[in-house]
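We include the entry.

. . .
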Amino acid sequence: MTYPAIEEMRGLLELEYASAPDPELMRKMALELAERTMMVRVGRAVVYAVAKQLNREWTTEDMARAQSPESLSLAADDYIDALQNVRRRLGQALRVGRQEVDETAAA
């Protein structure tokens, strides 16, 4: 849970929901959602690779490449796709809308 993308996502969410009535709860939820998102993204990549091997579509070498740190980091770093769902969950839980933030400045 020390991968930089988790911190980037958490930081962006904290900026977007800085107006939440309970900042401590917001920070806790932002971290939990960022961690969960990364676990799901990386886990999904591993599960798909295992399924490919079980279906005999991939060799052992293919599996090694798919589970390499470089491949798994690609799955984690591409978290922007997951932000919409995370924002929805955070906004509903906090009952507050997000503030527009320049995502490139937040990273």
Notes: The radius of gyration is 16 Å.
